[in-house]
Amino acid sequence: MLLRSYQLAAVKFLHTRQRGFIVAPAGSGKTVIAAEAASDCARTFDRVVWLANTREQCDQARKAISLASWPELVEIDVRCAAGKPDVSDADILIIDECHHMPAATWLATAAKAPRIVWGFSATPWHSDETRNECLRSFFGEDNFFTVERAEVRAGGHLAEGKVIFHDVDHPGEFDSSINAAAAAELAIKSRRFRNVPEAELMRRIKWQLTADAIRGNPARNVEIVTLANEAPGSVLVLVSTIEHGEQLAAEIDGAVIVHAKLGKKKRTAAIAGFRDGSIRCLVATSLADEGLDVPRASVLILASGGRSAGKIEQRAGRVLRPFEGKAFGLVHDFNDRGSVMGAAQARAREKTYRSLGYAVRTISNPQSQAA
Predict the structure, then answer these.
(1) How far apart are CA 190 and CA 185, in angstroms?
(2) Which residue from 94, 136, 137 is spatially nearest to 115, judged by alpha carbons?
(3) What is the full DSSP assignment across 305-364?
(4) Is the dihedral angle over the CA atoms 102, 104, 109, 111 positive or is it negative?
(5) For 320-371, how does the pLDDT look when each residue is reduced to its tens digit (9 = 90+)?
């Protein structure tokens, strides 16, 4: 397997570590790095366990594994981490999307590995410093190797990113209804969740109501459907709920929805159809946040809010894989000015886009301008 220069550097780094962590952007070939490093280190009769977060990521792992040269009689076991597999006899443990590892289940599993443990993620760092400290403590402060986004892009392995924010709301138009509903709900939930401070409980309630308002915003949904129907190329629409996804898919020409509750055969067929171009638009829930390898996708529409920098980087990365005829990956997002919290989260997303080097601009719908 012919490695890119930064992939080769990452492999060499891992060869010097019992515990090591590779931080590399989407499109850099993390699974290739993992497979090559493990195949070089594995010995006859070794057991290699590869943990991933989704079935699609497991499939990608198996593909990378098949391309590497392994010693004879090496046992390779690819598993979803949620199954709590036994890794106590693993000679090499690979943890894909390792930013999940601070979760108790993942950490308990990884801690049982007796020898080599290597983690991989595009977005390991979290706003919660305790999660970051968990990773540093497990892997060791000096055991992180970062593949720079600029190097991947310079090699032609990552497309340029452009973001268009859309204004479709009157500023604050949903706040009065959100506040009224939040006050009523707080009166009920404060009796049920006595251990949660009232201010924190109110914050959670308002965010849920804000998320509901964003998904239910008629002007926003009309714009999403219009953008999806008019966009050239292959369009990926990311939603936070199955119900919202089904609502949008019904209005988008040629759209197919995929989610975790969909049968494996149907989900695999839909993703394959999108990948080969026979399906023009794929509407997907959070299962597409990580590890969905669809280089053909050129347009992403974020149909839900949120502010997590890690999730935004993962989601936007879906349309940054190079593909013939793709000049850049385009992301459509929304300023969500209709609520204070929605607008604040949109500003956080914009900050993340700019930090990643995306070109960002805003388009205002004339009907959304305040009177």
Answers:
(1) 8
(2) 94
(3) ----HHHHHHHHGGG-S--TT--EEEEEEE--TTSHHHHHHHHHHHHHHHHTT-EEEEEE
(4) positive
(5) 888 888 889 999 999 999 999 999 999 999 999 999 889 999 998 755 554 3
